[in-house]
From TrEMBL:
Belongs to the peptidase A8 family. This is Lipoprotein signal peptidase. This protein specifically catalyzes the removal of signal peptides from prolipoproteins. Residues 194-210 have a biased composition (Low complexity). The lineage of its organism: Bacteria, Bacillati, Actinomycetota, Actinomycetes, Frankiales. Residues 211-220 have a biased composition (Gly residues). It holds the Pfam family Peptidase_A8. It is a multi-pass membrane protein. InterPro entries: Peptidase_A8. It comes from Frankia torreyi. The active site is at D149, D163. It is found in: Cell membrane. Residues 1-12 have a biased composition (Polar residues). GO terms for molecular function: aspartic-type endopeptidase activity. It is an enzyme of class 3 (hydrolase).
Amino acid sequence: MGAETTIGSSVSEDPADRGSAAAGGAGGPARRPVATLTAAAAVILLLDIVTKHIAVATLSDRGPVNIIPGVLDLRLTRNSGAAFSLAGGATVVLSLVALAVISVVVFTARRLRSVGWAIVLGALLGGALGNLTDRIFRAPGPLRGHVVDFVYLHHWPIFNAADSAIVCGGILAVVLSLRGIGLDGTHYGDPDPVVGDGGALRADPPADAAGRGGTGPGGQ
């Protein structure tokens, strides 16, 4: 009896301690993807703003600058449409769409547990913010401003860093979806953790219970 009492007291744990440990363990992984999303969006937004500023300062009133002849040029354009000069003239509508995308990303971040999806959403958020910044602050006016594009791959519409981030984020989203990775980090198609190859998993009985069982040697 003395031995059993000692064992029982050594494994006992305060429920409050268990709760705080669980909260701490869940909080770390939960914050990491959100931090990744925020960092990715901030880097993309900063890169987009800086490169557009340089493009306006160096390419205005200037012809195309050949980087790789026949492949890559730099040429400044003002785009009233969407990425890659699509939907020209729908600037106000596209500004509202960008605001909606930003709202969805921020809302989705609350249940984000996958670093891969954090990069996807960070790329989409940074790209949307980059082009929305142009539409708000550039001529001809708020929500109607024209987006600065300057990278021209031949046989491809002119684009900018924000457009590239949006496309890369979309490609990565497809890859993660095909691999069955969800926003919460789970893999679709993984076997149920409660069921093994041979059926339902059976928990091993506690050592002291096995020793006292009616069928074991200790129970005789």
